[in-house]
Amino acid sequence: MASTFFRRLSKATPVSFGGQPKSTFGAIAAVTGGISYLYYYNSPNLAHLEEVKVEGSPKVALNPDKWIEFKLQDTARVSHNTHLFRFSFDPAAKLGLDIASCIITRAPIGQDAEGKTKYVVRPYTPISDPDSKGYFDLLIKVYPEGKMSQHFATLKSGDVVEVKGPIEKLRYSPNMKKHIGMISGGTGITPMLQVIEAILKNPDDNTQVSLLYANVSPDDILLKQKLDFLAASHPNLKIFYTVDNPSKNWKGGSGYISKDMVVKGLPGPSDDTLILVNVNL
């Protein structure tokens, strides 16, 4: 069953990122790539959302204070350098990931001068439904110089990865804002997808969502088939794609996300709007 899932999902997830991550995100009007950010803009200030504790939570697999081993159940190649990884745990438990949160992974990379184990540590956002029990899925691009992604590429079914978390970036609640705008690039789409799916699967959530999604080329657009399906079946989701290197028949935007794209494609500042930014090319 898992193998069937991965075959279907890999076909529906064309990914082909090229090269190393681009330069760091500079301003809301010009996305050039870089490490991940997830902020909200609620006029007039830009700020982090604070974590909110909720009591009475169901049984969860994650522990924010302890490294837990999760066993690799299955893998699938999505492109020449991008892979899907499914990790399993207690089928009666949820992962314990809130919407737009990420997990922290670590892997040993030798020893220091005192003989103690050295680790590489990296955050990832699962693409599986946070309500799923017994498993979570990661979509990872394997960089030539990426110590953690190269470690993932060597894993075989039955191997384990140490995970800690969750690290919460946004505590979403239905209808918390009338309109949410999103700026994303590359693999930065993963937490955005969590928010989008949480909104769309709730019939009582009337939030409007506008997404500006930047990539290197049309072939690099992660999860495009799924995003297009969601937009076509939900009128409250609007998506605009832009790429650095458009193909001959490309009908979306060209170049980095510009001020004009932001003004035309995202909601204006108000007490009832929210802008999320997450870029990782």
TrEMBL record:
<feature type="binding site">
    <location>
        <position position="190"/>
    </location>
    <ligand>
        <name>FAD</name>
    </ligand>
</feature>
<feature type="binding site">
    <location>
        <position position="122"/>
    </location>
    <ligand>
        <name>FAD</name>
    </ligand>
</feature>
<keyword id="KW-0560">Oxidoreductase</keyword>
<dbReference type="GO" id="GO:0090524">
    <property type="term" value="F:cytochrome-b5 reductase activity, acting on NADH"/>
</dbReference>
<dbReference type="InterPro" id="IPR008333">
    <property type="entry name" value="Cbr1-like_FAD-bd_dom"/>
</dbReference>
<dbReference type="GO" id="GO:0005739">
    <property type="term" value="C:mitochondrion"/>
</dbReference>
<keyword id="KW-0285">Flavoprotein</keyword>
<feature type="domain" description="FAD-binding FR-type">
    <location>
        <begin position="65"/>
        <end position="173"/>
    </location>
</feature>
<keyword id="KW-0496">Mitochondrion</keyword>
<comment type="similarity">
    <text>Belongs to the flavoprotein pyridine nucleotide cytochrome reductase family.</text>
</comment>
<dbReference type="Pfam" id="PF00970">
    <property type="entry name" value="FAD_binding_6"/>
</dbReference>
<protein>
    <recommendedName>
        <fullName>cytochrome-b5 reductase</fullName>
        <ecNumber>1.6.2.2</ecNumber>
    </recommendedName>
</protein>
<feature type="binding site">
    <location>
        <position position="148"/>
    </location>
    <ligand>
        <name>FAD</name>
    </ligand>
</feature>
<keyword id="KW-0274">FAD</keyword>
<feature type="binding site">
    <location>
        <position position="141"/>
    </location>
    <ligand>
        <name>FAD</name>
    </ligand>
</feature>
<keyword id="KW-0520">NAD</keyword>
<feature type="binding site">
    <location>
        <position position="149"/>
    </location>
    <ligand>
        <name>FAD</name>
    </ligand>
</feature>
<feature type="binding site">
    <location>
        <position position="124"/>
    </location>
    <ligand>
        <name>FAD</name>
    </ligand>
</feature>
<feature type="binding site">
    <location>
        <position position="139"/>
    </location>
    <ligand>
        <name>FAD</name>
    </ligand>
</feature>
<dbReference type="Pfam" id="PF00175">
    <property type="entry name" value="NAD_binding_1"/>
</dbReference>
<dbReference type="InterPro" id="IPR017927">
    <property type="entry name" value="FAD-bd_FR_type"/>
</dbReference>
<dbReference type="InterPro" id="IPR039261">
    <property type="entry name" value="FNR_nucleotide-bd"/>
</dbReference>
<dbReference type="InterPro" id="IPR001834">
    <property type="entry name" value="CBR-like"/>
</dbReference>
<feature type="binding site">
    <location>
        <position position="147"/>
    </location>
    <ligand>
        <name>FAD</name>
    </ligand>
</feature>
<dbReference type="InterPro" id="IPR017938">
    <property type="entry name" value="Riboflavin_synthase-like_b-brl"/>
</dbReference>
<dbReference type="InterPro" id="IPR001433">
    <property type="entry name" value="OxRdtase_FAD/NAD-bd"/>
</dbReference>
<feature type="binding site">
    <location>
        <position position="123"/>
    </location>
    <ligand>
        <name>FAD</name>
    </ligand>
</feature>
